[in-house]
Structure to design on (244 residues):
């Protein structure tokens, strides 16, 4: 199995970050404040999560006045989707090996 | 991409061997190592074990598992957890044309942590399901 896209995977391993990303994908651009209203965590925590998402290329920040607006960058997900697809390939290969093994077993 | 492709991997093959033989290949450590991965598996429900493969950059090569169902010569399932993502692997064996139909279903990709976000269970499966529409347009 090939490696999972590290930063991307780690940033999405956290359910709160996934939820934030999903909300941004669905609702379009949002401020930290708007995102915090839907989170069970504090505004600083939401900001921190957004920072992780930004470093993984999943969101883009735009400063407007005092507030920062965030938008989802869904294209950044492509490696993750590819990785999921690879599981299929992984199991097909392992099944080939299983059949090969059965041939050799008593 | 269809939901099946992202959520669940299903492989079904007829193998010209009795179920007992396939079962051995699925449950004996040394044999499992030969076709799948190094492991400390035991065919006992509740047994916790690890699959180990060559670490690569970004992945330690370890899969944490726990045996869920053991029905000799019929059904075997274990959890499959790696990099914060938990899923389930189920093998089903059925007699077929003098051999055995082996079915493997790897499903239920979800986070192994609880969500701290309001109003929904943001598991991996839902997440990926929701994003399929997004990703389909890429």
């Amino acid at each position: 199995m090939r490696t999972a896209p590290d930063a991307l995977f780690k940033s999405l391993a956290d359910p709160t970050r996934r939820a934030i990303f999903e909300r941004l994908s669905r609702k379009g651009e949002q401020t930290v404040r708007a995102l915090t209203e839907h989170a069970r965590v504090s505004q600083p925590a939401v900001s921190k999560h957004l920072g992780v998402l930004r470093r993984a290329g999943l969101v883009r920040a735009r400063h407007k006045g005092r507030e920062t607006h965030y938008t989802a960058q869904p294209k950044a997900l492509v490696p993750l989707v590819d990785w999921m697809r690879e599981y299929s390939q992984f199991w097909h290969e392992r099944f080939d090996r299983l059949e090969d093994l059965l041939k050799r077993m008593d | 991409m269809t939901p099946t492709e992202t959520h669940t991997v299903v492989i079904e093959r007829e193998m010209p061997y009795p179920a007992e033989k396939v079962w051995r290949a699925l449950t004996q450590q040394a044999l499992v190592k030969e076709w799948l991965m190094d492991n400390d598996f035991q065919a006992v429900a509740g047994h916790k074990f690890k699959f180990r493969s060559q670490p690569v950059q970004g992945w330690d090569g370890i899969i944490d598992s726990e045996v869920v169902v053991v029905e000799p010569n019929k059904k075997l399932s274990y959890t499959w957890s790696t990099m914060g993502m938990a899923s389930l692997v189920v093998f089903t064996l059925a007699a077929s044309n003098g051999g055995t139909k082996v079915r493997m279903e790897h499903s239920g990709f979800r986070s192994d942590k609880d969500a701290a976000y309001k109003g929904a269970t943001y598991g991996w499966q839902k997440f990926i399901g929701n994003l399929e529409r997004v990703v389909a347009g890429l």
Summary: The two ends of chain A are 29 Å apart (CA to CA). The helical segments of chain A are 6-12, 15-27, 32-37, 43-55, 78-104. The interface with chain B takes residues 1-6, 9-10, 12-16, 18-20, 22, 25-26, 38-41, 74-75, 77-78, 81, 84-85, 87-88, 91-92, 94-95, 97-102, 105 of chain A (CB under 8 Å).
